[in-house]
Write a structure and sequence with these properties.
heterodimer; A: alpha/beta; Rossmann fold; B: mainly alpha; ABC transporter involved in vitamin B12 uptake, BtuC; 2 domains; two-stranded antiparallel sheet; two-stranded antiparallel ribbon; 31 helices; 8 strands; binds adenosine-5'-diphosphate; binds magnesium ion
Chain lengths: 241, 687
Amino acid sequence: MIPLLALRDVHAGYDSIEVLHGVSVHVDAGEVVVLLGANGAGKSTLLSVASGMLVPTAGQLLVAGQDLTGTGAGDLARAGICTVPEGRSVFPSLTVAEHLLMMTHRGVSAADVEERAYARFPRLADRRQQSAGDLSGGEQQMLALARAVATEPSVVLVDELSMGLAPIIVAELFALLRGLADDGVAVLVVEQMAQAALDTADRAAVVANGRITHEGDPERIRSVIADAYLGVDPLARQETT
Amino acid sequence: MQQFLSFTASGLTSAAIYALVASGLVLTYTTTGIFNFAQGAMAMVGAFTFWQFAEAWGWPAPVALVVCIGVIGPLQGLLVARMFQGLERTSDTVRLVATLGLLLGLIGVVHAIWDPSVRRSLDPFAEGRAVTVLDVRITYHQLLTMAVAVVVAAALWVLLRHTRTGVAMRAAVDNRSLATLNGARPALAGAIAWAIGSTLAVVSGILVAPTIELNALNLALLIVNAYGAAAIGRLRSLPWTFVGALVLGLTRDYAIWLRSDLPASVAPYLGGLSNAVPAIVLLVVLVLLPPAQLRTSTRAVRHEVLPKLTWSGTAITGVAVVVATALVIARLGATALLGAAGIWGIAIIGLSLVPLVGYAGQLSLAQLSFAGVGALAYAHLGWNHPLGLLWAALWGALAAACVALPAARLSGIYLALASGAFALLLEQWIFLLPEISIFGHPFTVFERGTMPVARPELLGWDLTGDRAYALYAAVVFSLCLALVVAVRRGTVGLRFVALKDAPAGLAATGTDAARTKLAAFALSGAIAGVGGAIAGGAATSISADGYGMFAGLPILLLMVVLGIRSPRAAIITGLVLGGSEVAADLPLGPLSSAFESGGVVQAMLIGVAAVAMARIPDGLLPELSNWARGRPWGRSGSARSRSVDVSGAPELVGLRTAATATELAALDHAIGLSSVRSTAGGARARG
Ligand SMILES: Nc1ncnc2c1ncn2[C@@H]1O[C@H](COP(=O)(O)OP(=O)(O)O)[C@@H](O)[C@H]1O
Ligand SMILES: [Mg+2]
C-alpha cells in the first residue's frame, strides 16, 4: 500500500542551521500517527516540511506516492493537505463565518462548509458573527480544526493539538481526529500530552535532535517513555534503536 | 444658513474625494503593509491620461472613462505590484522610500510626457447642470463625486466581507503564512489590492481634476490631505476612514468659509491656517489616537548592514572633499560657483539623515523644514561669523524636538506622516505669516517672501567671495562628517542603533527610548539647521517656498538609495542634487548635457531607485563595497537571509535554545555591535 503522506530522508533547517538530519515518516490512509519529542526536537519543523511551508534541503515529500518536494504550501493546501499549525491558528480579526468562507478553497460550497462545521461544533454556530480573537482557546482550536472537517482533506497535520486546553476538550478533539481517520484521512499529530495521544494513535514516533529515535505501536512507545521517567532518557538519546 | 449649506455641499464633495483616495490607501496598506505615498501621483496619472484621451484626442468622455478605469487604473496597479515585489520584508525606511520614489518618478514621467508649462484643464461632467436643494446649488459633478464615493464604499464592503477573495486579503494581513495554509494566495491578494487602489486613485484624479488646474504637483499635494482620513481609519478600518474623510472634508471647507468672515486684524494670521487644516488634523489624530491602535503590524524584517567607520577613513574623506572642492572651483565660471557651495549645503542636510534615519531608524519627512528653520534663524541673526552656525544648529534642533516630543511613541510610517504634517504646517502657515509681534518686538518670519543671508568673515579672512565660500562650505561639511562619525563610534550612536535594531536590548540596559529618540532628532535637526544656513549662504538669500515637504524628498530618497547608514552617501547626494550647474561647466563631454536637464536625470535615478530598493535594501554604497571586496552577496548576503519572524525576534534567538558562538556573532553583526564590542560589551543584547 502506498502511504498517503511520506517524508523520505528529509534534511531541513533555517538559514545555514540544519534542524532535521534525515527524517523518514509515513502515514497511511485511515491512520493516526503521533509524533512525540522534547521542545526544540524538530517536530514543528517536520510538519512545516510536510505542509510545504519549508522546502527540504535534501530528501523528498511524497503525497500518495507522487513527489511533491518544493511544491508551495498554498498548492498543497488546495490539493488536500490540511495543516493546523502550532498556537491558535485562527485569524483574530476575521469572524467565525468569514473563517468558514475561507474554507471553500477546495471547492466545497459555502453552505456545505457551514453545515459540516456547525454539525460537528454547535458552539461555533452560536459565535457566527464574533471575531475569532474573542473566542476561548478551545473554541479557537475547534475553529481551526473545522477546516479539517469541512474541506474534505486527504491528509491532516496538527501541531500541538492540546496546548493550553482543558483535558475534556482535548479528548473531544482527539475523538474528532480518530473519526476523520476512520473516514480514510491520513492524520499526523504532534503532541506533548503523550497519554491522550497514545490512546488514539495507531502508530507513534519519537523525535530527538532532528532524528526519529523510536517508532512503533503506541504501547511500545509508551514503555519507552515510561523508561525515560526511570532515568533512561530516550528522548535525548542520539542512536536509533 | 444658506452659506453653511453650500459649504456643507462642497465639504461633502471634498470628503468624497478624500474617501476615494484614502480607502485605496488603506486597502493596499492592509494587504501589503506598504503605505503608498504615491497614491496622489497615481491619481495624477489618471487625470492626465483622461485629459489626453478626452481632450487631446477627442474621444467621447464615456470611452475615455472606461479605458482609464478599466485599463489604465488596473494596469498601473499591477505594474507597481510587480515592482514592489519583495518589499514587504524590508524595513519601514525602505518601504517608505520606495513609494516616495514612485511618487517622484511618476511626477517626472508626467512632466516628461505632458509639458508642465502648458496649461490644461478638464471640464466637469455634465458642465453647467445642477440641482437646487434648499436654495443651494449642487452641480451634477458634485453629485456624481458623492455618488461614486458611496458606491465604492458599498462595493469595498461587499468585497472585503462577503467574497472569498476579499476575506482572504484580510486574512493575509492577520497572518500571511496561515492564509497560505488556507489555500489563499497572498501575492495575488496584494496584486488585486494594488490594482483596486490604483483604480480608485485614477477615479479620484478624474473627479478632482476639473476643480483645480491640471498640475502634477497640485494633484499630488492635494491628495496628501487624504492621509488624515486614512489615519483616522488607523490605516486599517475602512468605515472609520470614510468617517475621517467626512471630518476632514467638512472641516476644511468650513475653515475656508470662516476665513472669509474673519476680522481684518487676524485674517492674515489665520488665513494660511485654513490651508493647513488637513495637516493639523493629521498631526492631532496621530498624536491623540491610543498607541495600541496605531501599531504598525510586525512582520519578518531583515536586519540592515551597518558599515564600519574609521577615523583614518573619515580624515581622508574630509581632506579629499576640501581638496577636490579647491581644485574644481579654480576652473569654474560664475554661475557654476554659486552651485558649488550649494552642493555642500545639500550634502550636510543629507548627512543629517544618517544618525536619525540610518542609525536610529526614525523616519523624518521634515528634514528640509529643520534646515529651513536653521537658515531662517541664521538669517535673522545676521552675524557674519562662522559661530553663527551654532545658532542655526540650535534652532534646527528645537524644530526637530517639536516633532520628536509629541510623536514620542510613534514610529515607522506614523512618525513619517507626523513629521510630514509638521513640514506642511510650517510650509503652509508658519513660513507665510506676516509681521507678528513677540513681546512687543515686531518680527517677520520671511520678509517679503525672501531673506538675505550673510556670508561670514573669520579672523580677517573674507569668505564672502564665491570661491572662498564654496571652500568654507566644504570645510563645514567635513566637520559635520566628523561629528557624525564621532557619534557613531560613541555610546550615543550605539544607543541610536539599538533603538532601531534591538529596542528590547536598549530597554534592558536601562536607557529611555523616548530620550534616545529625542536626542537623535535634536542632533539631526542641528546638523540640518547648519546645512540650511550653509545652503542659504550659498544662494545669499532664502525664500519661504524653498523648504517644503516635497522639496526635501529627493534628499531622503537619494540618501536611502545610496545607503542611509553610510555618511559618505551625503557627498554623492549633494553632488547629484546640487551639482548640475557645476557639471554643466566641467568638460564632461556628453555627460554635461545630461546634467543640464537635471530634473530628468533625477527623476530617472529616483525611478530606478523605487524599483531597486526591494533588491538592494542596504543601499548602493554598502552593496558596491561588498562587491568591490569580491563578495557580492557575502556579508550583506548572509544578513539578508537572516529574516526573523515575529515570534523569533533577534533578542530571542539565544533564549529559545542555547545559541552557538557563530549564531551570537551573526546576531552581533546583524545588530551592528561587532565593531563596538570592546567599548560597550555590556550593552549587547544577549539572552
Ligand atoms: N523560524 C525559525 N528560524 C530559525 N530557527 C528556528 C525556527 N523555528 C525553529 N527553529 C529552531 O529549530 C529547532 C527545532 O524547532 P521546532 O521544530 O520548533 O521544535 P519543536 O516543535 O519540536 O519544539 C529549534 O532549535 C528552534 O530554535
Ligand atoms: Mg513545536
